[in-house]
Structures are given as structure tokens and as C-alpha cells.
UniProtKB/TrEMBL annotation:
Domain Smr: 127-202
GO BP term, pick one: rescue of stalled ribosome
UniProt keywords, alphabetically: Endonuclease, Hydrolase, Nuclease, RNA-binding, rRNA-binding
Protein name per the record: Ribosome rescue factor SmrB
Organism, scientific name: Bowmanella dokdonensis
Keyword Nucleotide-binding: no
EC annotation from Swiss-Prot or TrEMBL: 3.1.-.-
GO MF annotation terms: hydrolase activity; RNA endonuclease activity; rRNA binding
Phylogenetic classification of the source organism: Bacteria, Pseudomonadati, Pseudomonadota, Gammaproteobacteria, Alteromonadales
Keyword Hydrolase: yes
Assembly information from the UniProt record: Associates with collided ribosomes, but not with correctly translating polysomes.
Region (Disordered): 22-41, 52-78
Family under the similarity heading: Belongs to the SmrB family.
Function: Acts as a ribosome collision sensor. Detects stalled/collided disomes (pairs of ribosomes where the leading ribosome is stalled and a second ribosome has collided with it) and endonucleolytically cleaves mRNA at the 5' boundary of the stalled ribosome. Stalled/collided disomes form a new interface (primarily via the 30S subunits) that binds SmrB. Cleaved mRNA becomes available for tmRNA ligation, leading to ribosomal subunit dissociation and rescue of stalled ribosomes.
Ranges annotated as biased composition (Polar residues): 52-62
Length: 204
């Protein structure tokens, strides 16, 4: 039996350091009786002028993060609206394993990848997929993209985790299929490094 590759200890340490001051978006284990409709899975990033408690993400990022839970009805509506878009599991793109995970939609400005890599676009919404089953993760990504369009968000962060597990392989293949996704790039360290993607979206 082939052993599962283990995450590099240095990468794990850097990732933990980057997110040490961030309150978990959801617990890492999903109880069998729980449903994604029970609560939100993402934070909303706020500008420094917003009158809430500020949270630091890593040493460089000083943006505030809204810890207020989205209401169940709002979350449910986003999931229902997102259900109209179906990601295919049969699509599999090729990504250069020697390069950071990245993609730019044909016809879009390739310089956007550099801007994402540098962290020029801080995410407006941050989705954590830890502990989710594949089908639930797929639905939450669709709901996130629907909410981002509704709120005119230009950039979101999706935390898929480290290692080579199924979500890390599936998330980029799902994102490529969505018409609102202009580009994505492995997140800079302050937003999760190899365990996350920054996604640039078409603003409607």
C-alpha cells in the first residue's frame, strides 16, 4: 500500500504561524449529524474603518475580520441559489507540479496572477473547507461564489488545507468551470500559503 505523502513540517509551521491569530471558521471535524446549513463557513473581511474588533492574520495583514455569524436563512438562500450551477467531477485540468497552483481564464490579463501572488487583492470573503465532505465542499464553494457576486466581491480566499488530499485536487478543477472566476493563485503566506487559494472574480 502506498503511503500518503506527509506535509512538510516547515510548511505546517509557517501555515500555523500565519493563521495563529484567526478564530477558526469552523471546527476541523464535522459531526455526522451536522449539516452545512447549520451555519456559515466563511468570514467577511472588513476595512479598518469598520467599528469592530480587529484581528491580525499573520504579521503583515492588518485587515479586520467579521466574526458575526451569517444567519441560517441567508446561508440557506445562498446554497439554494448556487445549486443552479453544477460543478463537474469529470473535468480535470493539468497543473505544473513544479509551480504554485495557478490559473488565468483565457482572454484575461495574465498580470493578475502576479497581483494575486503578491497579495495585492486582499480577500473579501474567506471560506474554510476543513472537515467537509467532497459534495458539501462543492456546494459551499458554489454558495460562496454566489454570495461574492451578490456582494460585488472582487477576491475570495478558499482554504483547502495542506497535503495532497481530495479537496486540494478538486477545488481548482471546480473553480476553472465557473464563469465568474477570472484567475486564482496559491495564496501568500498571510492568507494560508500552500493550503489556500486566492480567487479573482468578475464583478457584476
Amino acid at each position: 500500500m502506498t503511503k500518503k505523502p506527509q506535509p512538510d513540517e516547515q510548511d505546517l509551521a509557517l501555515f500555523r504561524q500565519a493563521i495563529r491569530d484567526v478564530k477558526p471558521m469552523r471546527q476541523d471535524t464535522l459531526p455526522e449529524h451536522a449539516s452545512p446549513e447549520d451555519g456559515p463557513l466563511w468570514y467577511r473581511r472588513l476595512e479598518a474603518s469598520d467599528n469592530i474588533h480587529s484581528a491580525s492574520v499573520g504579521n503583515k495583514q492588518k485587515s479586520a475580520v467579521d466574526r458575526q455569524k451569517r444567519s441560517k436563512p441567508e446561508h440557506r438562500l445562498d446554497r439554494q441559489a448556487a445549486a443552479s450551477f453544477q460543478f463537474s467531477d469529470g473535468f480535470e485540468a493539468w497543473f505544473d507540479p513544479s509551480q504554485p497552483l495557478k490559473y488565468v481564464q483565457p482572454g484575461s490579463d495574465s498580470h493578475e496572477l502576479k497581483r494575486l501572488r503578491r497579495g495585492d487583492y486582499p480577500p473579501d470573503l474567506i471560506l474554510d473547507l476543513h472537515g467537509l465532505r467532497r459534495e458539501d465542499a462543492k456546494m459551499e464553494i458554489a454558495a460562496l461564489l454566489h454570495a461574492a457576486r451578490k456582494q460585488h466581491c472582487a477576491c475570495v480566499c478558499i482554504v483547502h488545507g495542506l497535503g495532497e488530499h481530495v479537496l486540494k485536487r478538486s477545488v481548482p478543477n471546480w473553480l476553472i468551470q465557473h464563469p465568474d472566476v477570472l484567475a486564482f493563485h496559491q495564496a501568500p503566506l498571510e492568507w494560508g500559503g500552500r493550503g489556500a487559494l486566492l480567487v479573482l472574480l468578475r464583478i457584476q
